């Protein structure tokens, strides 16, 4: 059996969350290694669709320590390639101690250390770490909803994680499913090349045109501060809407190319059928559970379904823009995963696991720090986590 390599901190994941964590670990002088499953730098940005842009200008899309270089292209928001280049240069600039490709398969309790088990080049490798930061993101766990008839449909079916542009889909009529940013952006893009039907679980709510990633970060941060202070929950980002009006989406709205219809009831071998409109959906139930007032008049509306209830609309493809789930399978041996596959975070901490103070969760969304899944938002929880890790390591060495 291969002897474990000892390290103070193992960071699992080399995307934006892993880089931000490494930055603060380096600043604190804490020995660490970053284990990345990808062949190269850039995180999920290198695997997204080519037309994707960030939600904010470079100065509001930056990791700690070094601002993203100015964007010289069209519009104000940097392209996917620009962000990927920035993350690559960031990794080099701060000499991030990354090892790749390493596929981490399990984190186990090894007594006084956590054992991080993985595979590198076909060889089993293990790190014995005093603390672990899980920063694996969500990209590797696309969510496919259970819709009646999915297995019977004979056309193409892709998740947005597999989408690489309009050429990814056959010509003809495409059903785009999903009422978030991805669904709106890809539906807007595809209207130039395909006949598009955009189906959502609830009427899409577009944020005001002036809202970008910077505003979302500020709102999420203010909400966290209010909740920590015991003030009423104002809904945070969710109260603003669900969809940022990036230029492509705004143009499609203004030109009348982008309108949503209710979610389909089922797929058939050749297409999709709708049921009666007006029934409650799980999405709405989730929104109510989150404390958002469903009675608010936000101007969101559906168009009528393209065919009467029960009739089948022929389709050549379905594009599922239905989101992702946290990639936390490697933490299963610790027995800490609970509701929705998440790991509960300790009270008073943004990232520390409630069941094991040696484990931190980084960059998975607001439950691991306000706007922590964004470039601008991940720096703050990363810094706080490193502070807590430093205290843990100091205590372990007999320090204060």
From TrEMBL:
Molecular functions per Gene Ontology: flavin adenine dinucleotide binding; monooxygenase activity
Cited SUPFAM superfamilies: FAD/NAD(P)-binding domain
UniProt entry keywords in alphabetical sequence: Oxidoreductase
InterPro entries: Auxin_biosynth/cation_transpt, FAD/NAD-bd_sf
Coiled-coil residue spans: none
Protein's UniProt name: Putative flavoprotein involved in K+ transport
Organism expressing this protein natively: Kytococcus aerolatus
